[in-house]
Amino acid sequence: MTPTFTLFISLFTTLLAIINPLEAIPVYLGLTDGKAESEQRRVARQACVYALLLSFFFLLFGTALLRVFDVPLSMVRVVGGVILMRVGFELFNPPPSGGIIPRTDGGDADVAFVPLAMPIMFGPGAIATLISMASTIKQSPQELQHFFAAAAAIVSCMLTTYLSLIYAKPILRKFGKQGIDATTRIVGFFVAAMGMGLIFNGAVEFLAPYTCVARSAAGN
Known about the structure:
- By secondary structure, the chain is an all-alpha fold.
- The protein has helices spanning about 5-20, 20-30, 35-70, 75-90, 110-120, 125-140, 145-165, 170-220.
- It contains 8 helices and no strands.
- The N and C termini lie far apart (about 45 Å).
- About 35% of the residues are buried.
């Protein structure tokens, strides 16, 4: 398996786990309850387009944001890992208040951008993941190939999410609320595990220079 394809699979599965279309389906149906089918499709399409644009923004300008705020990549990975762990724990054991994955009642307002696209579909976990990925791509000798692989992963993830929303009612009938709840909890467990991996890798990267200094001092 080539590094480019590995990056595509890794980013696609990570984003899909964070967005979790099965988790978004009940929220989407609640937000669009009572609307015509054409209006529901429009909301789903616009929400995915908004989330796609946000994803490309952070993929393209993620490293610039790091320089502007003078934040090292290792700290982004640690903070992103903490956020992913929190998202995972909330998916595994949802709090009554909704936490950082809000449950919003539908209304007459356009809900395509807020809250459906952001933060339900594109929240802190996706932001941290894409900024970390952008920094990793910049450090790669195959930067252009890896960028196209990341772009393809983002488009594939949003297309999968769009299809899930379009066929939300049949999926809900097929899985049932209990099936979706069980799947969401399983996904939450693995999202939390990915978050722990980011924390570990970020901490190792942050402490690596100090370890080298300590070894040099001990050698002298």
